[in-house]
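User: Hey, my collaborator sent me this sequence without any context and asked if I could get a structure. I don't really work with proteins. Can you help?
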Amino acid sequence: MAVLVKQIKPKALDAQAMQNALMAALKEVGKVIKKDFEDTTKYWKHKPKFEILADLSGPGPFVYVATDDEIYRYVNEGTRPHDIWAGAYTGKSNKRVLAFPSSFTPKTKPGSLTSGRGRKGRVDTFVPMVHHPGTEAREFDKLIEEKRAKWYKRQMEDAMRKARRVSGNAI
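Assistant: No problem. I've predicted the 3D structure and written it out in structure-token form, which is a compact way to encode the shape of the chain:
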């Protein structure tokens, strides 16, 4: 008795189709993560601009959402204690006192990705200088990374399966 074995040859790899499918998935993932960052500033008057960088080079595909906004960095990374002086003493304005409310509720909290309306009382404090205790880091970037890590892995696995199909190498 003889057994006939027929050779199965896969199609040639279409590397460009594979890269296109992976890049499309990275861009979609980037949009979702960018929305997560934008949600952290939902009630801010100041709206930082976030940009998406997606790349297939390196040890693996990655997507990076970033901003160069200084205020966002202060909130995300926190600030050290520091003195704040009225403008007349720093040369930035002719104001001799700082005016601010003594009661205040911030729009964001450490350990949370949500942004609320915040609250401030009436202006009732007038001083030439104040020692600011610093701002506790919100660490939005780390929280979003934790939130999205498993989801990102699933998205990339799905994208790689799709990329294999479109490149002609799916099993």
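In plain terms: The CA atoms of residues 39 and 132 lie 27 Å apart. You can pass these tokens on to your collaborator as they are.
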